[in-house]
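Appendix B. Extra example for self-study. Work through it before the problem class; the solution is given directly after the inputs so you can check yourself.
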Amino acid sequence: MDLHILDHRLRVTSISKNGLVNFTHPLIKLIFLRNRTRCKFFSLTETPENYTVVLDEEGFKELRPSEHLQVESAIWLPLNVVSNGSASSSSQAVGVTKIAKSVIAPLAQQHVSVFMLSTYQTDFILVKEKDLSVVVSTLEEEFNIYKEEGGESVPVHCQDVSNAIQPTVHPVLIPKNQFCVMSLDPDTLPSIATTLIDVLFYSSRFPADLLFTSSSGELWRMVRIGGQPLGFDECGIVAQISQPLADSDISAYYISTFSFDHALVPEEDIVSVTDMLQHQRNEPATS
Amino acid sequence: MSGSKPDILWSPHHPDRYVICDSELGLYRIGPVGSAEAKAGTLPLSEETAATLLAINSDTPYMKCVAWYPKHEPECLLAVGQANGRVVLTSLGQSHNSACKELVGKEFVPKHARQCNTLAWNPVDSNLLAAGLDKHRADFSVLIWDISSKLSPETSVAAEKIRLSSVDLDSSTVVTKPLYELGQNDACLSLCWLLRDPKLLLAGMHRNLAIFDLRNTSQKTFVNTKAIQGVTVDPHFHDRVASFFEGQVAIWDLRKFEKPVLTLTEQPKPLTKVGWCGKLTKGHSNNDALIYYFVFWPCKCSFKMINVVVSLLCACIMLHGLHTVTIPMQVSHMKQCAEDMELKLQGNVQSVVYSGIKNIVKTTSGTTETRRCWSGSDRQTDVPRYHSEERCLALRLCGWISRGTDTDVENFLRSLEQEHEWERAAAVALFNLDIRRAIQILNKGAMAEKGDLNLNVVAMALSGYTDEKSSLWREMCSSLRLQLKNPYLCIMFAFLTSEPGAYDGVLYESSVAVRDRVAFACMFLNDAQLPRYIDRLTLEMKEAGNLEGILLTGLTKDGVDLMESYVDRTGDVQTASFCMLKVPRQITQKSALHAAVGFTFMFTGSYQPTFVFVLWQVFVSCNFCGKSISYSCSTIPHQGRGFSQYGVSGSPTKSKVTSCPGCRKPLPRCALCLMNMGTPVSNCQGTGKSDEKVDLTRENKLAQFNNWFTWCHNCRHGGHAGHMLSWFRDHTECPVSACTCKCMQLDTTGNLVPSDSS
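Solution. Structure tokens for the complete assembly:
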């Protein structure tokens, strides 16, 4: 297995619900006019609390400071796991579940806070730049680690050790919404731009039959992690969700936002996930 | 419209048909312009040809890529990859083939929808269709479908957790279970099946090229590279593969897959497709492969696109032609010379190895003169024909007679006939005094497909031959022959109408191949005339830098002069160095040393506009980025910058380049002066005070050569040629400390001593 440290330096920001109007221009530019910016990494997640924007430093320059904009001070680096063909294909589980044991748990043990971004194509594990040496030394045994510099992959080696801390268990919330995960051919972006702008900035209903790439009609349910905003320093949050999912071989998307973390699990598995997480919540209390 | 790039596909079986894939599929046939079927939908392609629209298919929306079924039947079956990853089989035009009807409309649906980037039919097991898809976090990107697979939709759908929408539940035509799944967690951008084994699939993945083996799908060979677009295997050399990235083409050898064996110079515009030239012209060796690439201009109009493609294909044929005339012919000459000479050597007559016809006929002795009859008639000719062992050898070198004792030209005539060189064959027959055979050949030529009917007229004129000095025939032929366009027809009549021994009309007809003229001279010129003629011709060849002259000079000093003049004229170092690899050690002339050392420098340059199409097959590549260090000037070769770019031309006033134009990393340093490559030699340490009397012209030449960069192929150390030469004058070991490589001794030419230095 290969672990690639991608060549992006990311900032995690949040735009408050009523402050979005101040950022319409830079956001439209970042989303739809990709050749107008030098931003290479951009993610926008809308939650009931706020909008979480993850973007690289070039893109960050586009966002004007404002009272509505909260910025996490650290620089984050995205990691990406590439199974170089040698991985066994027996497991049907996808996403966070697949890397739970190999990446998430070891990092949690080393007290490294991670910010997960699952996408249709792949999962990005964001770690703070200052934690990189710990990350490299932790994962070195399991992975060939490459750092991408200007498109070339350079192998990385490091020696460093850190110690472990037991994580706290956070409450979870499982709303009734159903979610659809889709991807979009970048070439078609212009043709649906108006609809997307409408959805993003003006209304909240996503029109049906828009994204032709959704052929397998899988539906997903969400698990929100955290009762209080989680902050960025605590480690082991992803691990406490992904570990039990991995044990039961359940696929999952995991999307961290500014305040809370969200895991998407297949609709048919939601009951077992609920039971499992409930059980996990009760266990520390009883023990 | 899915925004895909327009593409053109040539029919695998009909050279005149192609499919344009844009928002819809259009099948076109190329025909002569203005034919009866000129109707709507005809696109003019060039002055002579136009394309007629035969069929159009717009059944498949969101088309991303198309592949044409490789087998003859069903003929117009196409696989279309869509933006949602589905692969649909469709056809163009009417097909009454039941197998085709069964297949058309079949859909192959991946588990997770994403764009289908590429499709490839297995050329042997044509049921297998490989599809390359975009990345998905949990799915494979290379799916191999069996188009003949019968499916049980209920079970497979349930198993794969696929909930197809009601529209899609036309499940009799939907296949969801691929035969093989390869390339997890990665994107696949291009695919091709390897011809050396139909179970091997080469895939251009996101960051690497990977070879998958269907017999053991868990194993794969891969190499990290950026050049992963458009992988394609050479149809004539199954281990050779091309791929590209933006404007750069990489050629790979599968037997040595770690690095591209060749990186073609960067094109100013990004490429959209590369391919191997499928057809080789007659007499072409299989190893002389050719790659063409073309660039689509950012133009939506598909009509313009066709024009571009066609004209570039023409350019590629032209390029091909240049290759045929330059390199292989000369090489075959060289071989012929060497082999035949060695044969002669075994006969222990004299040492003529590598010497050309010039030397052979100089030593001619025991020439006999015969007057033969015109074959097929009793009439005595008054044409004397000369025979000797040397002349016979020369004829053999010219290719007129085959090896051995056989002096009959019949084999040669037959091979010429096969190649449709009717006029040349007739001329050769006539020079062998077989007028009947000549007429027969001309008749055959007139009858042949695309034959010239005028050949019959020439045959008629020929049959009227009379040896009477004052006949009307003779008078008319000698004047009218000048109007014949074909040089061989012209010299036939020149021969028949000239006095014995005065064959200037034949000997100085410059459009006739040198070997034919030389062969003629060897047959009909006497011992006094022959060396004179050969000398004069040799001089002419040397001055013109005409490589045909190698036949005359052989690999002697004359040959080296000729080669120098050829390189001066064309800049084609490759051909020259290839020929010069055979230069024997005995040649110790300074020029030969220069030629041999200089040519084996892996530099290449072409500063003649006529040669801009010749591919640069050998170049100096940067250690860091692998690109040619001369690529920046290669895109504008006609500006004549060639060598001067990196200072090897020796002019210190020229701008010097000491870093790779591709990645800006510094070029290697000279081991002696520690200056970067590209820096001219400031002062020649080698030429001390004592050498100053050397005449100025030689000095200049030397100075140019001193700037060339050279290195040992064993230890990879090197530097300015001048510094190296002077170093090895006193040392045997490599100038780099701690390196014990005896570089100069590894080089055979390094042991040579300039003849005038002693």
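Self-check: The interface with chain B takes residues 81-87, 89, 92-95, 98, 118-123, 151, 153, 182-183, 185, 187-188, 212-218, 251 of chain A (CB under 8 Å). If your reasoning did not lead you there, revisit section 3.
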